[in-house]
């Protein structure tokens, strides 16, 4: 198992990343890399630039990030999941508004299998801080995932305090009722979700699927025929159940979604 970790293109020390562990302030994106290519690379870089402005009021050099990612990807087997984390070692916890210089941490891990089994999801009332930003503040998400697993489920599906379904701990969710329905609610606009919506209907074959958005609550789940989660590491993964609602599965729909996603052109890093 090959794992690589570099900070601004250099070997990382414990001192270098102490602020990340102790302050837990920063943002990241994760991407599946195949032969030095990535689906939606431009959108991953766009996310990093946007979130850097939001958290640090600094413009991030996307070309430099790309070069740092390329350095790591050349050292690891393909496919792999590469995470780019932007944080500021000089951040003063007492004065976080003071100017800082964000740094770029690039890490890798082996990519999971693309055909993982369906997930069993438990709903939980929870809303991530600043949901439109992919930040490193994962305590609440991991805690809710752990609580769901202790109840016998695989993962957790968040429900906003207003009752609206939003997202999962590390993925977006969609439902199928003849259309592909994404929750209309405050959540992270996932790169895989955006790519899939763009790809549907473009070479997807005869079983074209219309993506749409709607406000969804737990009461809407029993009326759905299937559900799926999406993220960059696994692409599209089916859902077996949400709480007590069990889905029979829609193999043809899953195949259409996976085929549409697989057909997306990969961008050179």
Automatic annotation (TrEMBL):
Which Gene3D superfamilies does the record associate with it? Answer: 3.30.470.10, D-amino Acid Aminotransferase, subunit A, domain 2
Q: Which GO terms describe its molecular function?
A: catalytic activity
Give the GO biological process terms.
carboxylic acid biosynthetic process
Tell me the InterPro entries matching this sequence.
Answer: Aminotrans_IV (IPR001544), Aminotransferase-like (IPR036038), BCAT-like_C (IPR043132), BCAT-like_N (IPR043131), Class-IV_PLP-Dep_Aminotrnsfr (IPR050571)
**Where on the tree of life does the source sit, at the highest rank?**
Bacteria
**Where, by residue number, does the polypeptide cross the bilayer?**
none
Which Pfam families does this entry report, sorted A to Z?
Answer: Aminotran_4
The UniProt similarity line reads: Belongs to the class-IV pyridoxal-phosphate-dependent aminotransferase family.
- Protein name, entry field: Aminotransferase
* Species in which this protein is naturally found: Planosporangium mesophilum
């Amino acid at each position: 198992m090959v794992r690589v970790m570099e900070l601004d293109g250099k070997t990382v020390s414990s001192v270098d990343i102490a602020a990340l562990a102790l302050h837990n302030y920063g943002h990241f994106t994760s991407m599946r890399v195949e032969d030095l290519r990535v689906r939606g690379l431009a959108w991953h870089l766009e996310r990093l630039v946007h979130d850097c402005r939001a958290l640090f009021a600094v413009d991030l050099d996307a070309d430099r990030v790309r070069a740092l990612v390329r350095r790591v990807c050349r050292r690891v087997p393909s496919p792999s999941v590469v995470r780019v984390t932007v944080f500021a070692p000089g951040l003063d916890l007492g004065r976080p508004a003071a100017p800082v210089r964000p740094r770029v941490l690039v890490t890798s891990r082996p990519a999971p299998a693309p055909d993982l089994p369906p997930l069993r999801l438990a709903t939980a009332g929870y809303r991530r801080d600043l949901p439109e930003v992919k930040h490193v503040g994962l305590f609440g998400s991991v805690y809710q995932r752990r609580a769901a697993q202790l109840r016998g489920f695989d993962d957790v599906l968040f429900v906003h305090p207003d009752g609206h379904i939003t997202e999962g701990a590390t993925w977006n969710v969609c439902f199928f009722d003849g259309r592909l329905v994404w929750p209309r609610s405050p959540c992270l606009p996932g790169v895989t979700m955006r790519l899939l919506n763009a790809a549907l209907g473009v070479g997807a074959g005869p079983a074209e699927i219309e993506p749409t958005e709607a406000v969804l609550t737990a009461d809407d789940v029993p009326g759905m025929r299937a559900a799926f989660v999406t993220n960059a590491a696994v692409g599209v993964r089916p859902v077996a159940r949400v709480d007590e609602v069990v889905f029979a599965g829609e193999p043809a729909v899953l195949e259409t979604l996976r085929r549409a996603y697989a057909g997306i052109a990969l961008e050179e890093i």
